Amino acid sequence: MDNAGYTTLSRQTGLWREMNIVANNIANAATTGYRQEGLIFSEFVKASPDGRSLSMGNGNIRNTSFIQGAITETGGTFDFAIEGDGYFLIETPQGERLTRAGSFSVNNAGDLVTPDGLRVLDAGGAPIFVPPDAINIKVSNDGTISSSDRLIGQIGLVQPTDPLKMTREDGVMFVANEGFEPVENARVLQGSLENSNVDPISSIAQMIQVQRSYELGQSFLDSENERVREALRSFTR
Questions:
Q1: Within the chain, where are the H helices?
Q2: Contact (CB, 8 A) for 176 and 224
Q3: pLDDT value of residue 223
Q4: 7 CB-side CA count, 13 A
Q5: Segment 156-183 mean pLDDT
Q6: Is 229 found in the same domain as 115?
């Protein structure tokens, strides 16, 4: 395979990765708190002995969009949306994780948990316990939870120390590799959920564009393959 073939093949690999990411974004367009992903393409340039250079493109760096998603009112007592920066702090078997998905409930033990049963943590990193006899539960903008006659706790709102080094663990959970800290410029909205920040229409348009680019590259590789085969047949006659 010549340089043009290697260059096209590296581009095809990046486009294949981008297609998978775009398809995953579309699949999660209705997932609460989901953050859209993208792919960054980089260029590798190497000088050859004859003075010319070889350039190859590769898409291997994922990036996450942190744009605020639309907020929908649900009326649920334990449905929370964050307006502004910040994440809810969640306890998992692998350690503490961050998420924008605020659809919570109270389990049989009285702990505030995610749909997967993971406990939601307060500002001090402890689980939030909701007494079974608590009534008229309200949550203020700073995350303070109270009932009609008592203070229950405060939902922990944090932000990663270095957002660029935060990695996605699954659809809505993130790992803050450099740690996290309390966030102050955020508001908790009770009875609301933050939608995914995926724009389905633009994502579908992007998928079509990536597919056409991939097909164009594949057409070039097929033509190159036929050219090489024809050359070999000529040499062996």
A1: 3-27, 200-235
A2: no
A3: 73
A4: 13
A5: 90
A6: no
